[in-house]
Structures are given as structure tokens and as C-alpha cells.
Amino acid sequence: MDLNSVRQFVAVVEAGSFRKAARDLDVPVSTLSDRIAGLDRDLSVSLLVRTTRRLTVTEAGRELYEGSVGSVAAMLEARERVVSRGQHPTGTLRITAPADFATAELVAAIGEYRCRYPNVTVEVHLTNRYVDLVAEQYDIAIRGGTLPNSGLIARRLGAGILVLVASPAYVASNPPLRHPRDLTHHTCVGLAGEAQTRTSVVWPLRSDGGARYRVEPRFGLKANTLTLAVECLKNNTGVGLIPLYVVREPLRAGSLVRVLPRWTTTLIPVQIVVPELRVPSLKTKAMVSLLVERLQPLLRDVD
User: Fold this and answer.
1) 78 shares its domain with 120
2) Distance between CA atoms of 176 and 239, rounded to whole angstroms?
3) Do 152 and 169 lie in a common domain?
4) What's the rounded Cα separation, in Å, for the pair 31 and 90?
5) What are 163-188's pLDDT values in tens digits?
6) 153 and 96 belong to one structural domain
7) Which residues pair with 160 in a beta bridge?
8) Distance (Å, whole) CA 20 – CA 5
9) What was the pLDDT predicted at 47?
10) Please, what sign has the CA dihedral across residues 11, 15, 21, 23?
11) Could you read off the pLDDT of 227-265 as tens digits, one per residue?
């Protein structure tokens, strides 16, 4: 049976006439009549007897009505809840981003979002692990680098670079750095990623003139967060290759300085990624807009 036809049949029985039910459902009487006639054919019974004066429900019609009215009411109630959810988001919004990624900006975006949509619970998971959005039921991911063809929808935020930094005290007390090859004689600070399986790490550097050089750094320390790595660098532990937006303030304050300032990484694209849905939810679209507003300025000066 066609469920919509059953819903319309229930409406006719409750209204007591085709004309009144047609007004309630906002459909032509002829359409309603055709739908009920189709149900009669599907079930090989007559559900209603209609005369010029009255509408009578047959025994078969009464049985169908009594067996369907509760389900139709539940279906309509569920529809109203879903429509309301689209207009007034509820539930949980799950976000994943790299560890230490723009924490202050993320917090500001989430705070504004919660003011607008207080019935939505926001979960944020910061991890360097590659998260499968669909399998792990995440709504939004922030990712850097070139994305594989995964069937996800990406919105570009901008691009960032990584720069070489160290503390002024470290630079003053160690051999001068004139070329990336000199890094092999220095202690380096790196990141210990959750998904890192390689035994060696390469820093791919590019000069402002276009020259390229790949360095295999000699690590004296690895940290699992950028925050910890930066604090270690400020404490004279070595040279690190760190995203510019992370060390912008320490550079301004003088607790870190650029080394080999003509050498950086190439631009690394940063994007917001969401699963592909035929009808994107307002819950997700609203957060994406806020994240774009908060995060794009971080990357604009190197885009």
C-alpha cells in the first residue's frame, strides 16, 4: 500500500467527507478520490461508500482505519519533529580538527554557535589521527594538505606555511645556520603524531627563490602537541618546523626567532570537510559559516 494514500484515507474518515478532508490536506477532491479508489483496487475491497448525502465507512474500511490511525499519527508526529529539527537544530554536532589547531578561534566559534543554537550539544575531538567522518559519525573535519578523492565536500579556508624557529638563546649559543644542510648539526624538535609509522621524517623546504631542499632532522625531542613543542623551543631545546600561525605571537614577543627565514615549506591548503548529504543540515551549515569567519583571517596573510 501507498502510505500517503493510507494517511489520506484516515483523514477522510476523520473529516467525515471528501471535501473537508481535501481542504485539510490542501489537495483537490478529485486527487483524494483517485487515491482512495487506488487503495480499493490494491486491497480488492471497498473502504468507503459515498452517496450525495453521506459517507459511510465499510467494515473493511473500519478495520483499515483502526489498524492505521495510530501509525499515521506517529508518522505525522515524527515528520513534525524532523521539520522542527531542520528549522531549530537539536542533537549533537561532532567536530574533529588537528591537535592544537587554532584553539582560541575554535572556542570562539563554538561559543557563538551555542548562543544561537542552545539545544545542540557540540563535541570537539582534537587529534592528529585521520578520522573517517562517515564511519565515525562526525559532522565536520578541519584538515590540512591535499585531500584524496573521498566523496566528501571540502570548503577551502586558505593556506598555511611552516617556518623554522628557535629561541634567541639557542641561536646565540650554537653554530650558525646559513643553509638547510646545516640543520643536520643541530638538535631539532618534532611532533610525535598518533598515526606516524615512519622511522624517519623529512622536512621539505623551499626558498623564496624557488630552490628546494629536503632535510632529515636529528630530533632531540618529540612532542605530541604543537603547544608543548613551542614551549620546549622557547626553553632553548633546538630548532622546530612549526606552522606560522602557531608561532606568530612568540615571534612578536621575541621568545622565538626565525632561523633560515628565506626557507619555509610550500603553501599547505587548509579546508573544512563535511560528508556529502543530499540536504545539508542547518546544524552543520551554521557551524561551517562560523568556522570560516573565525579561521580564514589566520591564513589570509600567507594565502
Assistant:
1) no
2) 12
3) no
4) 36
5) 999 999 999 999 999 999 999 889 99
6) yes
7) 268
8) 16
9) 86
10) negative
11) 899 999 999 999 999 988 889 899 999 999 999 999 998
> Can you name the residues that pair with 189 across neighbouring β-strands?
221, 240
Is residue 16 a contact partner of residue 55, using CB atoms and an 8 Å limit? Answer: yes
Residue with the three cell numbers 563535541: 123
For residue 19, which of 6, 4, 9, 30 has the smallest C-alpha distance? 30
Q: Residue 254: how many CA atoms within 13 Å on its side-chain side?
A: 1
Task: Out of 64, 87, 110, pick the residue that ends a domain.
Answer: 87
Rounded Cα gap, residues 217 and 229, in angstroms:
15
Domain count, the chain: 3
DSSP 147: P
Q: Do 152 and 167 fall into the same domain?
A: no
Q: What span, in angstroms and rounded, lies between the C-alpha atoms of 34 and 41?
A: 11
Distance of alpha carbon 165 from alpha carbon 182, whole angstroms: 14
**Of 25, 60, 87, which marks where a domain is finished?**
87
Q: Cell numbers at residue 92, please?
A: 549533537
Domain that holds residue 171: 162-264
Would you call 273 helix, strand, or coil by DSSP?
A: strand
- DSSP secondary-structure letter at 299? H
Under 8 Å between Cβ of 7 and 71: no
183-226: pLDDT as tens digits? 988 999 988 764 454 556 889 999 988 899 999 998 999 888 88
